[in-house]
Amino acid sequence: MKIAIIGIGKVGSSVAFALLFHPKVKEILINDIDENKLAGEVEDLKQAANIMKKKIIISASTINYMDKSDYIFICLGKARHSSKESTDALFDNNFPLVRKAIFGLPKDKVYILTNPTERIAEVLGVKYCGKIMDKVRKQTKAMTGGQIIDRKGNTCFGIASEAWRIVR
After folding, report:
1. Which stretches of the chain score pLDDT less than 70?
2. Which pLDDT value is given to residue 143?
3. CATH number of the domain that 136 lies in?
4. Quick one: what percent of the chain has pLDDT higher than 90?
5. End-to-end distance of the chain based on CA atoms, in angstroms?
6. pTM
């Protein structure tokens, strides 16, 4: 199975690392605007795969080549840094970036992980990650994403775990 990840910040790199452990994933394509960071993440992930003795192809890719992937995870844009941060401001910043990134990609393969995930996905007519995580947080009476962000500055392991679960 081939996975594509656009945006390799904290969330994108967490998704890529989580998917190294997925038994069906055979290839991970990564794209980021920062070429140095992209090259570093590709090498870091390759080293992790070698340590785990996992046979997997990990490579930098152009967005145009990602349309052949089975799943395309969009993790680019401005991160949420506080529970008090306006989701409208995040939408205004991130929506144009996501819209441009997914142009020409098959919508049935795209999953939004960029905040505000549900709103961006709804406007673009694609899927998003976060539903399972929100349900689990509610059932277990766990902290919200905003509460986690306020304590440690980011939250990415829950959403990366959800991406892992989506891949079938």
Report:
1. 152-153
2. 77
3. 3.40.50.720
4. 75
5. 9
6. 0.93
Instruction: Note whether 59 and 41 are within 8 A (CB).
Output: no
CA distances (Å), 38 to each of 5, 58, 59, 60, 151, in order? 11, 11, 9, 7, 28
Please report, for residues 13, 78, 132, the alpha-carbon distance to residue 40 in angstroms, rounded to integers and kept in the order given.
11, 20, 31
Domain that holds residue 154: 2-166
Please give the tally of structural domains in the chain.
Answer: 1
Dihedral sign, Cα of residue 124, residue 125, residue 126, residue 132: positive
